[in-house]
Amino acid sequence: MRVADAGPASTSGRDESIGCASWRSRSPASGSRTWCPWAETSAEVASALGVSPAVGLDEGEARRRLERHGPNALVRRIPRGAIAILADQFRSLIMALLVVASGISFAFGEVVEGIAILAVLVINAAIGFATEIRAVRSMDALRELGRLQTRVRRGGWERLVEAESVVPGDAVHLVGGDVVTSDLRIVDASRLQADESLLTGESTPVDKHAASLPTATPLVERANLVFKGTSIIRGEGIGVVVATGMDTELGIISALAERAEPEATPLEKRLDRLARRLVWLTLSASGAIAAVGLLTGREAYLSLQSAIALAVAAVPEGLPIVATIALARGMWRMASRNALVERLAAVETLGSTTLILTDKTGTLTENRMSVARVALEPGDVDLPLSPGGPEPGSDLGRLLSLAIETAVLCCEETTRARHEGGDPTELALCAAGEALGLRRPSLLAAFPEVGEEAFDPEIKMMATLHRREADILVAVKGAPEAILDAVSTVAATGGSRPLTDTDRAAWHARAARLAGDGLRVLGVARKSAREVHADPYRDLELVGLVGLLDPPRPDVRPAIDACRRAGIRVVMVTGDHAATAGAVARAVGLATRSEPLAIAIGDEIERLATEPPLERLLGVTVFARTSPEQKLALITHYQEAGEIVAMIGDGVNDAPALRKADIGIAMGGRGTQVARQAAAMVLRDDRFPTIVVAIEQGRVIFGNIRRFVVYLLSCNLSEILVVGLASLVAAPLPILPLQILFLNLVTDVFPALALGVGEGAEDVLSRPPRDPTAPMLVRRHWLAIAGSGATITVVVLAGLAIALTVLDYDLARAVTVSFLILGFAQVWHVFDMTGPRSGVLRNEVTRNPWVWAAVAACAGLLLAAIYFPPLASVLRTVGPGADGWALVVPLSLVPLLVGTLARLGVRSRLSAAFCDLPPIR
User: Fold this and answer.
1) Which residue, of 549, 576, 592, is where some domain finishes?
2) Based on the domain organization, do 709 and 755 belong to the same domain?
3) Alpha-carbon gap, residue 419 to 790, rounded angstroms
4) How far is CA 243 from the centre of its chain?
5) pLDDT band at residue 262 under the 50/70/90 scheme
6) In this structure, are residues 480 and 511 in contact, taking their beta carbons and an 8 Å threshold?
7) Which of 841, 714, 844 has its CA nearest to residue 787?
8) Burial 287-323 (b: 16+ CB within 10 A, else e)
9) DSSP characters for 454-487?
10) Is the pLDDT confidence value at 30 over 50?
């Protein structure tokens, strides 16, 4: 129990370097002797730090201490700077191959070509540097959006400050759900428990108190300290900061791992594995092409240069960079729509989500409560009072005032409500009190608060204690079933009378009727006690039931309909009454006319899971009165059934479930810090439709990455086949080494980047979720790559043959023709990167303005390669003439035409065979 404490009177402002991160810390008083704050009383610690916990530091002193001790931050891994990113560009395999190619050119006396390859090396590095630094900076900026705040007392007022500005001596107000941002000495506590598994590895909650401990107490037993990085899971308390930043226990641990590199996401690892395999395949093919060229009599210089240039062009080393750009772009889109992704791996999971477990209050409802009805012994009273309502002096009016007075007294401190917006339930109770002339400040003046029992999720009640002239008034509110189990009498018109079992059953029925009307129900009780430390939950007097209205959000029903079309089920999991949850579920469209609403109580989860068939559990739409353990069990059962589960939560008790789910989603506005840290994604606007937006973007991002991977591999395969087949038949090379490098810069950069930042298909939410076990590229993608590569190869070789035989071009002009056919075919090939169900003229590619900009840039560069003399001289191209262009344009469009016809054929087969298939699981 927290008892009001004025704290030490000292506000001397004395402060030196302090800390409790090790056994030997300098004392703020002496500066040299061993100081163990856990071994001193809370008053002695506060006095040594020059602070009154009831008042806190003033702003000027806080600023001085911040300058002296520095920010309350751990030393992070130093972000990669621009120089390091630039240097990394020259450590890649492509750079090594280009250096070798340049060296070979100089060795064979081809100085111009050697310089040109070095220029390609510089350009390639510049492009890689520009794209990577933008991605890195975007990711760093995104991470800065989710910074923690701490509730401190400054100059007698509570306020939220950035965690980095907390200083030694700050008085911090701790409540369940907070993440501790510094090491604190507890000076006041009420049922305070902390999760210290981060430091100790033990998941059992640790009870915290304010009493002093022996000096020899080991770290894991210092129950009057809470440590940075741990979390408050229950209760309330006040602590004084004794260490910040790297002086904290977490700071010592982090110093050992500050150079650790961040873990790559599953998507990045998959792309990296794909790139590595293709590297060795390409090198093997290039070596074979060089060997064939030498054996067929081609000059050694041209054979070696062709093989190396082909290896450079075919190695898809840009995959990770373009993937990072696509992720960053998509994450910025989510952030702009109030969905902040905390971990990159969540982006991939979003596109596979098949089930959303959502809470009720504040997610499906507006979290803007008002007292609508009060159930009293004589009958129910609707609020606000109508002209015919009970008179203040009547028996019913007296009972109504007693119920609202009790509920208003049993609220958290007004300072929290003033600075944080307050708990919607308690704000609604206070508003009802003001309507009846029962303002909380006036009530507290008449009945000063002398103690508080913080809300306990296990017993589902809280209590405040108030001094009266001759005794202590105990005001209690909580879940109606918990209140009804704790009361022995009831306030009636003639005074208090015993509550019989029949009465108790009738009150339970009244609570169920209120809940059935969609109201959130609270029980209100009170009693008189002789002393502050008496058990607040024994022999209570029931005053009444308070029904609060929290209307459903109007934008939830369309979002749930969108989830249904996307093959995603939405299930409500709430701690509220089953009748209340059912009413809200019907209002927001969780049940349809063809799909009746199935409701289960949390206690039924294990029974439903063990009874065959499991479909009985999977068919439930609303789970009411669920505990944190039951939420965990529910997620496990769904995952075992093959579902990809997204879990929405906001409370400290939701943290285990948020971690267990495939993707945890926390509320950024009303959610606790513990929930936000446990989640992979945070909704800054607390709106359910934002989840739908995030899922859509997750699908779009993965689709974009898959799209440009297919594009790059198709283009690379065509280059390999063009050179390889020409070498096998001892024909002239259709494209020269430097021309290959030029195409690599043109077609592999601009179109791929444009595909990576597209906005996706319009019907992306009308498709079933992606199978998370499926590889990045499935059979149809490899067939598309092989077919596109082969088609482009055929038209390039055909163009070369026609130019040499039919048009009777010399070799230079014929090679220019094949170079242009290959270049433009690859440029047009970007329009093949649509889904099998996309439109021919209007689709996700044609609606992407970046694609059109990339096509224009590529076309301009290809024309410059012919008509800009310095570049044409280096690339050894000549003007193809009118006949040449008449050959280039139609042949380069053939692969696009073939690809379009192939997609139309696939679409007709899909329409005939697959449209009625259930969503992929």
Assistant:
1) 549
2) yes
3) 66
4) 30
5) very low
6) yes
7) 714
8) eebbebbbeeebeebbbbbbbbbbbbbbbbbbbbbbb
9) EEETTTTEEEEEEE-SSSEEEEEEE-HHHHHHHE
10) no
149 closest CA partner among 159, 165, 160, 136 = 160
Whether the pLDDT of residue 906 is over 70: the answer is no
Q: Which amino acid is at 695?
A: I
Residue identified by tokens 């607390």 is 686
Residue 427 sits in the same domain as residue 566: no
User: What is the arithmetic mean of pLDDT over 259-271?
Assistant: 54
Structure tokens at 663: 């993707």
Give the range of the structural domain holding residue 394, as residue numbers without chain letter: 370-549
User: Among residues 377, 384, 386, 369, which one has the least CA distance to residue 421?
Assistant: 369
Averaged confidence pLDDT in the chain: 80
Q: Are residues 448 and 575 in the same domain?
A: no
257, 287, 316 - which closes a domain: 257
| Mean pLDDT value across residues 335-364 | 81
Residue 37: pLDDT over 60: yes
Three-state SS for 759-825 is: CCCCCHHHCCCCCCCCCCCCHHHHHHHHHHHHHHHHHHHHHHHHHHHCCCCCHHHHHHHHHHHHHHH
Same domain flag for 250 and 159: yes
Residues comprising the chain, all counted: 921
| Residue 439, number of CB atoms within 10 A of its CB | 13
Q: How far apart are CA 529 and CA 684, in angstroms?
A: 44
Phi/psi-derived region of residue 8, left when phi > 0, alpha when psi is between -120 and 50, beta in every other case: beta
82-86, long-range: CB within 8 Å, 24+ apart, which pairs? Answer: 82/129, 82/133, 85/129, 85/132, 85/133, 85/136, 86/125, 86/129
648 forms bridges with which residues in the sheet?
665
Element (H, E) at 235: strand 231-243
Could you give the number of structural domains in the chain?
4
CA distance 800 to 871: 22
Q: 300-314 vs 688-728: helix axis angle to the nearest 10?
A: 170
**Residues sharing a CB contact under 8 Å with residue 455, sequence separation 6 or more, in sequence order:** 176, 461, 462, 478
Counting Cβ atoms within 10 Å, is residue 909 exposed (0-12), middle (13-18) or buried (19+)?
A: exposed
Helices first, then strands: H and E counts in the chain: 32, 25
C-alpha torsion 669→670→673→677, nearest 10: -70
**pLDDT confidence band for 893 (50 / 70 / 90):** very high
Q: How far apart are CA 459 and CA 193, in angstroms?
A: 15
Distance CA 561, CA 582 (A): 18
Residues 771 and 863 placed together within one structural domain of the fold: yes
The CATH number given to whatever domain includes residue 782 is 1.20.1110.10
Phi, psi of 367 (to 5 degrees): 55, 35
DSSP 3-state of 58: coil
DSSP 204: S
Cα 195 from Cα 229, distance rounded (Å) = 10
Which token pair is 855? 């096509």
Placement of tokens 């030490």 in the chain? 8
pLDDT tens digits, one per residue of 721-761:
888 787 777 678 788 877 887 887 777 678 888 888 888 77
Of the pLDDT bands very low, low, confident and very high (cuts 50, 70, 90), residue 272 is low
Residues tagged active-site: 359
CATH number, position 387: 3.40.1110.10
- Do residues 893 and 766 both lie within one domain? yes
Task: Kindly state whether residues 785 and 908 are assigned to the same domain.
Answer: yes
Q: Are 183 and 152 in contact (CB under 8 A)?
A: no
CA atoms of 132 and 322, how far apart (whole Å): 8
Identify whether residues 557 and 677 lie together within a single domain. yes
Q: At what angle do helices 319-336 and 688-728 cross, to 10 degrees?
A: 160
